[in-house]
Amino acid sequence: MQYIFTRLLTQLIPTLFVASLLIFGAVRLIPGDPAVAACGENSVGTKCQDDLRALWGLDQPFFDQYVSWVGGIFQGDFGISNKGIEVWDVVATAFPASMELTLFATIIGFGLGLLLGILAAINRGGFWDYFGSVWAGWNIGVPSFIAGFFYLIIFAVALDLLPSFGRVPITEDFDQALLHLIMPGLALGGIVAAQILRFTRQSMLDTLTEDYIRTARAKGLRHSIVILRHALKPSLIPVVTIMAFNFAEILGGTLIIESVFTWPGMGRALATAVRDRDYAIIQIITMLIVGIFMLVYLLIDVAYVSLDPRIRIGARAEG
After folding, report:
1. What's the CATH number of domain 92-318, 1.10.3720.10, 3.40.50.720, 3.30.565.10, 3.80.10.10?
2. pLDDT tens digit string along 192-233?
3. Which label site among 19, 30, 128, 297 has the fewest CB atoms less than 10 Å from its CB?
């Protein structure tokens, strides 16, 4: 618990502060004026533009705008979009959709990668090893949006097995929700599964040569117990280490995938906001993504410590 508190105080909070400042400044470097975008290209210097700039606080000094924005967040006020919609309403709609897709793709990536990696390691040189190598090569070599189009052509157009676009919330219809998730989930999770497969295979092969594994086998323990109880846990350490990067890759990849499959998540909302120069939405969604990344990195660190007790011992010794 002390470790988590220290990380929050020394890394997470300062990083979020710097990120908020950079994001707030970078958004204002986007070409174009949101007031002009809202009033029309012929509105430069008109009352409409001046009124909107005053309404959105764009006529104030930079740091006054920043302080007002951050203060509003702490008060639960995320601002108003250019279209007069509460930013919170946009986020409340888009966030669950993106997280649903990201978590599903992560489950696919981790589950398939771990399973195929274990099978490839214990069947080295056999069918599963060869299959895993070919499958990983396909997913690593083909970009996720190309894979998405491929799945659309095969499963939606040619075979007519899966819906080609849109989302159905899991709370409304679980079966239909899964059908809508399969293709974008595979497109996003495929490359992660390929990376997990390679790391798991190599880590398992290295672990299976350790003396304590040979000792466990010499004692007559069943093959499944040796693999699952003695070889798998230490093999997960490098796999867990890269999971944060894979989660970030999946979450970042939703921007394109959501456009391919017309998925109503943060990626589509962010793309629309950039097109409309909608500062309020861009800032909140970008900050939310940064916050998720930082939280995931913290959770991965905690998981890493739990898998390798030597890290915990070392940290306490230093403290």
Report:
1. 1.10.3720.10
2. 888 888 888 888 787 777 766 667 667 766 666 666 665 666
3. 30
